[in-house]
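Issue 218. Parser rejects a valid record. Input:
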Amino acid sequence: MTATPLPAHVRVLVVGAGFGGIGMAATLLRDDPAADVLVIERGDDVGGTWRVNTYPGAACDVPSALYSFSFAPEPDWSRAHGTGSEILGYLRRVAREHGVADRTIVDCELLDARWDPDRTRWAVETSRGALTADVLVTATGALSTPAVPKVPGAELFRGRMFHSAEWDHGCDLTGRKVAVIGTGASAIQFVPEIVDRVGHLTLFQRTASWVMPKRDHRIARPVRALYRRLPWTQKVVRGLVYGQKEAYVVGMTKPLARRYMLPLFEKRARSVLRSQVRDRDLRARLTPDFAITCKRILLSDDWFPAITRPHVTVVSSALSAVTEEGVVDDAGREYPADVIIFGTGFTPTEPPVAHRIRGVDGRTLAEAWNGSPAAYLGISVHGFPNLFLMYGPNTNLGHSSIVYMLESQAAYIADALRVMSVRHLDAVEVRADVQRRYIAELDPALAGTVWNAGGCNSWYLDATGRNSVMWPTFTWRYRSRTKEFDAHSFASRPRGGR
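Output the parser choked on:
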């Protein structure tokens, strides 16, 4: 990373230095090592969500074989599912080896970006000064801003209180009364890590989740040595894992397949629950009332053993209030607590960056979306020329690695920049009719999926009830659609034109 001042102008400005931002910049620099690209990162290092989430047990639920860039294989993953620290180390290495670190300015937060139609460029304000950019790429991720509920009385609490994504490592939990709010993907990892240290743990579960075995294991040294010496062997494994994951999409998205495949998944999950939770009442409260995969299946080998410890109380309720000495459930029962930890997730359908970007009519991206994010291919939004989104609307997955989608997006954006250069274009903007047709195609495709019709209320659904998060079919179809920039779908402005 560099401590040099911001340049006055840059060709491509990438916001965010997680998987998306690193992948975007690395793609441009692989094509042209002299590419005029700058990455700004509000944190003090690259890594995105893996820099932020340092809670005990932080790890990935996507197999290591898939959770890496195809252009930067990692033969030395120690486990089948990478740990948070290992993934962060990997991202630092990729940023360094592909020249991204030298083009990254840290502790630099995007404050405002406005499209200047006269100069056909973005006027950008950051926490470290102003600059302009021909092209703006947002790679701020979906899991970057913690969602902390506003709970009555929180300001009165005398103990320590923090979100799992802002873990207080100075807070010693030994022998303390700890209340954990939420039972999602973060809690399922950190609760087993802290449960034996705390004096008592009160777990607030508003909605039960389907849990399946993670089957994590160490990757033997001879296997890692084989990957180093014969890289093609790791590519074969990656391909096999990819194919296996893609097969799951059929059961999630095809109504007929759902009828036969999902009951098999559910039977397996119920079997795990029955074997690990003997108490019938608790088992009933831990059994979801919606179709499996409606929300992402949580993977763990130690979740149920952890929450069935004698000193753990599972509260099947939302948190309704906080007092000076504890937490209160929906029925008004109070539970004493010295520490409150929120495992309440993030804000994927309301990204804060959308409030800081203003398009041709002066409206912010958030105002244009009006509670329901939408973008052509999840990348481009009408009214926002030369703006490209990484991990934009409807590009999330319920079965495979988001890195595959990010690489597809990076290649598409890089090709758009190439077309702009070859055709001497100052600006490109997706046509309104193209975006409308795309959304009109997407929404019916999602209607029959388990995410829409599985009976759950997940973070996939935005404030309007629309699924603005998930991609409705195979990932290879997305890659096919983003293989090259389709200039005919965009209005363009020739260089120097009006």
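Fixed in the parser; the record now loads. The two ends are 38 Å apart (CA to CA).
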